[in-house]
Amino acid sequence: MTSNEVLAMYENIAALSNRMAVAAREGDWDDLARLETQCALQASAAKSGVPPLAGVERKRKIDLLKQIMANDRAVRDITEPWMGQLDRALSPAH
């Protein structure tokens, strides 16, 4: 994997994670699930390892990772309470 391919992968994941955050805010669970699958497919390219980056490329990778993490947090902030409500609704009453 070249440094350009590494950055392209992170760019794609950042864009997908942003769309995931939008879908979560809109309550579009089908789109969120579809985007999550696409994101996982993109990230699977990194399983074999990625070359280390330096300089401007390294800074860009870090910036993209920060965006991805912020989008992930936004999705979790919406889905975790909803999942808790769903869990309580499906639990047998005591």
TrEMBL record:
<keyword id="KW-1005">Bacterial flagellum biogenesis</keyword>
<keyword id="KW-0963">Cytoplasm</keyword>
<keyword id="KW-0969">Cilium</keyword>
<dbReference type="InterPro" id="IPR008622">
    <property type="entry name" value="FliT"/>
</dbReference>
<keyword id="KW-0282">Flagellum</keyword>
<protein>
    <recommendedName>
        <fullName>Flagellar protein FliT</fullName>
    </recommendedName>
</protein>
<keyword id="KW-0143">Chaperone</keyword>
<keyword id="KW-0966">Cell projection</keyword>
<dbReference type="Pfam" id="PF05400">
    <property type="entry name" value="FliT"/>
</dbReference>
